[in-house]
Design brief:
This protein is mainly alpha-helical. It contains 6 helices and 2 strands. The protein has a two-stranded antiparallel sheet with strand order 1-2.
């Protein structure tokens, strides 16, 4: 393969966005994994329950664009860590309502504070105007 190809993957926007997302996610992952032993999907499930209250796994999949298998594994891990509880729906025993335990809510509060601080640190690399443009552009791309 030649280096003089007219296509440079590093300039391909989906690739650049993925690289940026991975780098920033890995950096924050050090906190929630180091302190709570959580994986990325566990953090995302915990976030959705903390932000939106009781949800089914299907609702978390839809809200977070997460595959059901990953959500299922994350739910089992969070339940084992006693951060969430499950209750079978009385009218449809195939589905369960998931909700954070008291400890899960405390972890959520702690992680939100850390996420805000990390976000501020990341954003601090840009001027106020650049931050507005960056967030606006990312929102538009996410809405595609």
């Amino acid at each position: 393969m030649s280096d003089n190809s007219p296509f440079d993957l590093r300039d391909f926007l989906p690739y650049a966005l993925n690289q940026a997302a991975e780098a920033t996610s890995r950096a924050f992952q050090q906190y929630y994994k180091g302190k709570y032993g959580m994986l990325r999907t566990e953090w995302r499930v915990l976030f959705h329950l903390g932000r939106h209250g009781s949800l089914t796994a299907k609702e978390i999949c839809e809200r977070g664009s997460i595959h059901k298998t990953k959500v299922s594994r994350a739910v089992a891990a969070l339940e084992q860590k006693r951060l969430l509880s499950r209750k079978t729906l009385p009218d449809d025993r195939r589905h369960e309502i998931l909700q954070l335990t008291k400890n899960g809510s405390a972890v959520f509060t702690d992680l939100c504070a850390s996420a805000r601080a990390y976000d501020a640190e990341l954003a601090g690399q840009f001027t106020a105007e650049e931050q507005v443009v960056l967030r606006r552009c990312l929102s538009r791309i996410a809405a595609l």
